[in-house]
Known about the structure:
With 247 residues, the chain is mainly β. It contains two helices and 19 strands. The chain has helices at residues 45-52, 59-67; strands at 9-11, 28-30, 43-44, 72-73, 76-77, 84-85, 90-93, 98-105, 109-115, 122-132, 138-142, 147-150, 168-172, 178-182, 189-192, 201-208, 217-222, 225-230, 234-238. The strands form five sheets. Strands 5-4-7-8-9 form a five-stranded antiparallel β-sheet, with no helix packed on it. The longest helix is centred in the N-terminal third of the chain and has 9 residues, at 59-67.
Amino acid sequence: MTRHGGSRSLKRLNTPKFLQIKRKHGKFFMKPSSGPHPSRFCLPLLHIVRDLLKLVDNHREAKKLIGLGNFKVDGKVVKDTTYPVGLMDVLSIDRINKHYRILPDSHYGLILHEITEAESTFKLCRITQKTTIKGGHIQLNLHDGKNILIRVKDPSNTKEDVYRRMDVLRISIPDQQIIKHLKFKEGHLAIIMSGKNIGQVGKIITILKRFGPKASTVSIQRDDSHTETLYEYTFIIGQDQSEISMP
């Protein structure tokens, strides 16, 4: 990897705060590979191994450990040291039976939240787009770059099409089978995934749609307080209770 400020490096002073790195220790820091998660809102795998989990002491040791196939993201082995691990992704280390989910956090932005082995078998994915493909089948595009095909028996009567953008799917990993469908609606639980209120969890009280994604807002209630956030910042995590464990 280029260590001299090329396209594969970031200046440490310009890195997002959630990376939790020492900005005065060296000039450059690894840049995440291109992927489904925004480059400034994901954790490079090597950074997780070396700096957050502290499984090794240096870049060379971390690169070797990753290259041996010791780490899985969403159930699949990843050997790319700069692989972007992002929101709701599940990181598993089978050799030591440790599992983590990437969650938004008010202090760090993104954190590794340790979960049980049972919980590591699924993840939550938000529907970002829905398209009709050949044969009248429905393709759901998810926030983490995954796609799920919903087969339609009768294109003139698409009763299988019950999904909407912003809805969340609980899917098994790595085979991506839909376990549960969580609708984006008032009364459901949500976590704020970006902005000044990132990491806050509460029940959706109102959804106010206006023209344009940055004009629409959602009001979330937590205890006796209300928080207003952008429509796009809201990620459903359950109906009456959360589908995932929280910090």
